[in-house]
Amino acid sequence: MAELRLVKERQPELAPAVDLQIALIALQRRIHTRIPMPWIEFAPDWLKGQMAAGRPLLRFEEIPLEWTDVRLVFRQTADELHRFDALEPQDYRALQALGRDGHALEPLVVDWFNRAANPDRPPAAPPLPVAVSAEALDQVLSLAMRPFLERCAEAVRQRADFSAWRLSSCPLCGGEAELAVLDAQGGRLLVCGRCTTQWRFDRGVCPFCRNDDRALLPSFASCDGVYRLDACDVCRRYLKAFDTRAGGRHVLLAVDAIATLPLDAAALQRGYRA
Prior knowledge:
The longest helix has 24 residues, at 134-157. The mean pLDDT is 92. Strands 3-2-1-6-5-4 form a six-stranded mixed β-sheet. It folds into two domains: 2-157, no CATH class; 177-269, no CATH class. It is built from ten helices and six strands. It has helices spanning 2-10, 15-32, 44-53, 67-83, 89-100, 105-117, 134-157, 244-247, 253-259, 261-269; strands at 177-182, 188-192, 198-200, 219-221, 227-231, 238-243.
């Protein structure tokens, strides 16, 4: 929270985005305290096989979900996004209807999780009972489910070795990286946007299309050198990075995703997409 307030002081143009992020963090903290720590066991041979096959470790049934809490945080997340004009009114109304329905949300959550966790065999997407944009639904699900997936990451972090993982998707839940971290040695770790798990990935390779031609991997830095933007001229995507050497602290996803919004604007102006 303190770091976000500093961002607001230094970059007043980001005040609405900071205020929204503070509201979302407060909401996620409240629900996080109610989520039990899951007991997730990995047989050594199974774990080795998953790593070798490039399959994420977490299975949906291992997530400690209480559906009453899921529906509550889903509705409240939509409330906050709507309050800060980050949701279209029609999407907001549809999402609130989904969150109030006793069972409509459950198959959508399962589908959302397994599309990344089981990309080779994703379940058939359930029909939407309301008219809502896929982007709005994914945005709210990602934010609402983060406390539950973070709990799983906490349970697994000390017992799973991700050093052999070579994919750009998260080794725990299969999610895409939302941010990268440059460590003291200049190496790169990716940070999952769904569960916040971190894992190493070659800095000289695009995490989206695996292009490794450095001439086609332009990079831009913020004026203070704390943040970088690594782009790819093959797939036209980009990933932002926090440089711990210049930042002097650990990465804070909720802070750094907001502080780098000017880099997003610069990337979009150059024709790249997140």
